[in-house]
């Protein structure tokens, strides 16, 4: 045999695949490498690649041919080694040339593989849904929230009170100089909303339309702008208008204004609100019960979670966050500045949740394998269609974007998730 390989497991599911090539296989690899190099060698008096072999051999060092042979064949040797030892890398293999000579070459590939998962108990675990009831306090709070959405505003002649909206012009000064971002005109501020720094809104309670005030404040020590942290400032404020919020009565007219499908009476609106609250609480109860049983399944299992998978999960979480804050017109740099954090701090914050998510995923994969859970072709097609409907894309487009093996793995994990619930203690 001209190729031998050996797999040596290391910590955190990493390992080293040592591949040795010798004999005729190594000589043939070096011969092809020499021919490849020779085709590009120019020697005076001969056309490129057509000089006598003896002259080219003097020009091309043996070591150069050996390195070229390794570069040309490393991936092939790696694939043979992976197949021999039934390995599936979960990180990009890093290659190192351990030794090379005219007789043989030894190449070392270092990478991580899926770790061994020792499953604990995952059948017959308790699955308890909390009782769902909507009390009058919750119901009234939701009705009031709706009334707030459809509130009217009336101009008020008297002094502003907490809950009123004041339309103001303001400008902030530090040491007598206006500071950036501290000015606005015709700004509607709800007193008591906590929209501005502490003290600002309180000092406008009692103000009237056309009144001008100077508000003295100190910025919080944890304020996001470095040049304003803990600084004394003065805001010059003019109150343009004071408006009072007027909430609508819950009557048939209000029910029609809400414009909910099939609802045109106050009683119908109240039923809809209560039904929706119950549905929300049922969903929350299911999510909580699911989380509890899956936490238990993961806790019962033993697995050495690879760092590379945790890093990938953290990156995924960071990307998801970036997409969310983009929807609010911010970028990651601005967000980090507001939070007073660096990117590496945020990655560290995500690490524990990422490790937990990766462990659960590995455990579900092991359960799917143990229970021989396998999605059928129609299951894959249905999922492709669901994704296409969700993102309003053609199914063919979705298939071009999502690898079927990836989707199949995701479906197997969901089947394992359902299996755990179906086999929970009733």
What class, by secondary structure content? alpha+beta
Number of helices: 12
Uncertain regions: pLDDT < 50 for 5+ in a row?
A: none
Count of extended strands: 11
Q: If you compute it from the alpha carbons, what radius of gyration comes out, rounded to the nearest whole angstrom?
A: 34 Å
CATH topology of the domain at 3-113: Alpha-Beta Plaits
| CATH homologous superfamily identity of the domain at 3-113 | Trigger factor ribosome-binding domain
- Bin the strand percentage: 15-25%
What is the overall pLDDT average?
A: 91
Q: What is the CATH top level name of the domain at 3-113? A: Alpha Beta
So what's the overall shape? extended
Question: Helicity level, as a percent range?
Answer: 40-55%
Q: N-to-C SSE series?
A: EEHHHEEEHEEEEEHHEHHHHHH
User: What separation lies between the terminal Cα atoms?
Assistant: 58 Å
Verbal overview:
With 426 residues, this protein is α+β, with helices and mostly antiparallel strands. Among the domains are: 111 residues, Trigger factor ribosome-binding domain (Alpha-Beta Plaits, 2-Layer Sandwich), CATH 3.30.70.1050; 95 residues, Roll (Chitinase A, domain 3), CATH 3.10.50.40. It has 12 helices and 11 strands. Strands 6, 7, 8, 9 and 10 form a 5-stranded antiparallel β-sheet that branches. The protein has a 4-stranded antiparallel β-sheet with strand order 1-2-4-3. Strands 5-11 form a two-stranded antiparallel sheet. Strand 3 and strand 4 form a beta hairpin. Helix 1 crosses helix 3 and helix 4 packs across helix 6. The longest helix has 35 residues. The protein is extended and about 105 Å long. 15% of the residues are buried. The mean pLDDT is 91.
């Amino acid at each position: 045999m001209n190729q031998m390989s050996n797999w040596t497991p290391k910590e955190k599911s990493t390992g080293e695949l040592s591949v040795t090539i010798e004999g005729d296989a190594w000589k043939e690899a070096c011969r092809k490498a020499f021919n490849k190099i020779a085709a590009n060698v120019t020697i005076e008096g001969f056309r490129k690649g057509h000089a006598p072999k003896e002259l080219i051999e003097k020009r091309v060092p043996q070591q150069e041919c050996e390195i070229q042979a390794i570069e040309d064949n490393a991936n092939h040797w790696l694939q043979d080694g992976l197949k021999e030892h039934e390995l599936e890398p979960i990180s990009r293999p890093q290659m190192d040339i351990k030794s090379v000579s005219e007789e043989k070459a030894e190449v070392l590939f270092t990478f991580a593989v899926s770790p061994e998962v020792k499953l604990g108990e995952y059948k017959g675990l308790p699955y308890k849904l909390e009782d769902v009831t909507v009390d009058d306090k919750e119901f009234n709070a939701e009705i009031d929230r709706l009334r707030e959405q459809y509130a009217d505003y009336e101009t008020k002649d008297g002094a502003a009170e907490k809950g009123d909206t004041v339309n103001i012009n303001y400008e902030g000064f530090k040491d007598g100089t206006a500071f950036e971002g501290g000015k606005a005109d015709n700004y509607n501020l709800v007193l008591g909303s906590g929209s501005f720094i502490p003290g600002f809104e309180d000092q406008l309670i009692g103000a009237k339309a056309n009144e001008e005030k100077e508000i003295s404040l100190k910025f919080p020590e944890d304020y996001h702008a470095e040049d304003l942290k803990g600084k004394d400032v003065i805001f010059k404020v003019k109150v343009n208008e004071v408006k009072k919020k007027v909430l609508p009565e819950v009557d048939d007219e209000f029910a029609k204004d809400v414009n909910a499908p099939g609802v045109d009476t106050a009683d119908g609106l109240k039923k809809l609100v209560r039904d929706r609250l119950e549905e929300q609480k049922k969903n929350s109860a299911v999510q909580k019960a699911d989380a509890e049983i899956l936490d238990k399944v993961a806790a019962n299992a033993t697995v050495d979670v690879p760092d590379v998978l945790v890093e990938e999960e953290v990156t995924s979480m960071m990307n998801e966050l970036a997409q969310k804050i983009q929807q609010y017109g911010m970028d990651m740099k601005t967000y980090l500045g507001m939070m007073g954090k660096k990117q590496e701090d945020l990655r560290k914050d995500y690490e524990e949740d990422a490790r937990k998510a990766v462990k659960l995923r590995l455990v579900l994969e092991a359960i799917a394998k143990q229970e021989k859970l396998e999605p059928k072709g129609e299951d894959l097609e249905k999922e492709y269609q669901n994704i296409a409907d969700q993102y309003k894309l053609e199914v063919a487009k979705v298939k071009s974007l999502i690898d079927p093996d990836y989707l199949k793995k995701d479906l197997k994990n969901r089947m394992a998730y359902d299996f755990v619930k179906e086999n929970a203690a009733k």
